[in-house]
Sequence to fold (504 residues):
Amino acid sequence: MVKAVALALATLALFPTFASAHGPSRQKVTETVEINAPADKVWGVIGNFQDMSWHPAVAKTEGTGGNDANATRTLTLTSGGTIDEKLISNDPAKKIYKYEITKVDPKVLPVNNYSSNISVKGEGDKSTVEWKGAFYRGFMNNDPPPELNDEAAKKAVQGVYRSGLDALKKKLETGG
Amino acid sequence: MRQRSHNGLVILAAALSAAVVLGCWPAAAEPIATHPFSEALVTNQTGDSLSIVSLADMKSVAEIAISGNPAGIAMSPDRKYAFITSPESKELVVFDADTRQVAKRFNVGEGPLGVAAHPSNGLVYVADWYVHKISVVDPLAGKVVAQIAVGDSPSGLAVTPDGKSLLSADRDSDAVSIIDTATNARVKSIPVGKRPFGITIDAEGRRAYTANVASDDVSIIDIATGTVVGTVPVGHRPYAVALARGRAFVTNQYGSSLSVFDLDSLAPVKTIEIGDHPEGIMADATGANVYVACWFDNVLMRIDTDKLTVTGEAAVGDGPRAFGLFLR
Fold:
């Protein structure tokens, strides 16, 4: 036990700012979906930072600050983990908001320094939703284990975006 | 009066050419290029490549594969070579910009990122993110000749125009190191804002500007006294600073914008909306334009420094960073 603590402390000393470090290469993911619904209606579902219930992996959204810059929310996932997020900016006229993750366990989502934006562009009765993320892998030093490498981070974020956007399309097109 | 100053110039020019003929000036073989910039060399980190953009028409004219997630870049004084860091392969890549071929690449430590070239002694300085040192590199010999211990996770590097001092933004120490290039001694560590990343020195070698990622501001250092003389709030997650026509232009990664402020009054001038995740930024020789690599959008943008608007863009490879001096 003492040995394990000593090792942990030694590791911390070697990497004093493990959580905020920036060494590896930042990764990016973009996913889109076309929805047969006008943009105002789509934004009506996703535009409220304090209500992420449209995403099937989110069980609960709790937050403060509404939809103003620096508002915060905690997403409780159906799997039990949580993600703390902060609103960077919100532009309802352009139908885009930007946010960042302020706290997440790499076991829940294997990323660091994650920022994202989600936007809606419309043309008549059709809309395109675009969800973009920028982030570093879960392991911030050289030679990451496979579950915390660049590919694992990208795959996890792609999974979140894809399942969310597909569910959004279904909800809006079937009213379900 | 006019006649006298004219004569003075002639005498100065004669003295300089005599010195060049005698081989005592400049000290190194590389002359300092003075022609206007014609190209941008943009490191595409996720794309593992280098895009070459023609500035006259803002068009990508070539994309050259460079492995190792290239990020940092500097130019030799004669602008023949670009020095590029590849953090993932732990190498410095010496790129012959005239022939557009990699001339040499070699290991320079554990986590090379920021890079700067000395104006006359032929050496290149490479910041090592993981071992908290700056490697002094002889690029043509392909070897590290010395290492300088600095603060934690050094990022941006810049050398004063007279070549006497090297400045290092030590990101995780929230400080800037000043190094005497004659002795490689670290002579000072100056506390700045939180997580300084890019660092830019003005043409006079008087002041340095750091973009502080975590405190959303720019620290202004008086280099001679080694003190912070100003702090200017900017947008969200600033990355780097360019100086042109009496103004600073700061890329805000999360803000997707450029903050512009006046260098004398330090008052804000404008916030310009640009592409997503703007990063590397550099002014052209006249200061008429600044060029910005937008990491998410895969474009290099040109911003007119008088009109303060985007006047051109060129598609580049995936994930452009252009961290350093990337125009030639």
